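Regression test case RT-17, inverse folding.

Input:
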């Protein structure tokens, strides 16, 4: 099995079934955790003095306390495939948040270096921009939870929906060079959910010289780690895909390069074949 693929594990006593750290991934910036909580269970998250968090309610509802302030109940979808925009909490360096599940609750907790530049805040659905991308069999729908034009020190967080039989994160692109304004070096995790849940999608991670070239079947709840290189996703017939991306690196800007062999998929030559 590829070292880039973290299989879904049995939940521990906190309900955590994914736990990626910079040390376990062999990189410097991105950490990721996934939790399942039963109604009535409580979890507290304390950001270290040098890290920030983005806690995404992937599914379910919770009573939330942020920076000691009670927010009341947040959450507006049973699961990600409701396709509603999510509620999230941005937790600045050194701050804390507590969530008490009022229904079954699925949480994604995103970690990256932080400096306490910006205050903690609730990211409500109305704060999340949505956009459709692509044409034909290369279409996806995106919720920009924490894009590079919204306040954070390091974190970039986005969720993506891809219908059965389509590609996503495609044409192949990469962001592994610290060379703005052309490209930024961003580590990335993909937290995969599949509907129906017995399905899988395919993700490839590869570099131009093929020194890295891994192709993985990602099942429901798996995480793919992208340290460098291109990283397209392909769905299978009968199964829709959701993934939550977490990115961070030396510069908080999403600047990337297309793989030239496939960049034509972005052009009118391809789009015109799939429009009336």
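Golden output:
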């Amino acid at each position: 099995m590829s070292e880039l693929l973290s299989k879904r594990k049995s939940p521990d006593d906190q309900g955590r079934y994914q736990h990626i750290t910079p040390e376990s991934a062999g990189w410097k910036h991105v950490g990721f955790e996934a939790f399942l909580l039963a109604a009535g269970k409580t979890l507290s998250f304390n950001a270290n003095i040098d890290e920030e968090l983005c806690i995404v309610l992937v599914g379910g509802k919770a009573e939330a306390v942020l920076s000691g302030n009670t927010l009341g109940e947040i959450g507006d979808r049973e699961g990600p495939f409701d396709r509603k925009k999510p509620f999230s909490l941005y937790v600045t360096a050194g701050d804390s948040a507590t969530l008490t599940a009022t229904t079954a609750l699925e949480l994604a907790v995103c970690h990256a270096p932080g400096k306490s530049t910006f205050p903690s805040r609730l990211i409500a659905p109305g704060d999340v921009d949505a956009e459709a991308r692509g044409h034909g069999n290369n279409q996806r729908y995106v919720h920009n939870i924490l894009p590079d034009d919204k306040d954070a020190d390091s974190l970039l967080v986005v969720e993506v929906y891809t219908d059965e039989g389509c590609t996503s994160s495609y044409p192949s692109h990469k962001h592994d060079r610290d060379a703005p304004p052309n490209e930024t070096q961003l580590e990335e995790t993909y937290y995969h959910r599949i509907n129906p849940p017995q399905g899988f999608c395919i993700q490839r991670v590869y570099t131009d010289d093929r020194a890295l070239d891994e192709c993985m079947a990602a099942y429901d709840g798996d995480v793919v780690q992208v340290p460098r290189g291109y990283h397209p996703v392909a769905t299978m017939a009968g199964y829709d895909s959701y993934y939550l991306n977490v990115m961070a690196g030396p510069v908080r800007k999403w600047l990337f390069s297309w793989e030239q062999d496939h960049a034509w998929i972005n052009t009118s030559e391809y789009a015109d074949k799939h429009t009336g």
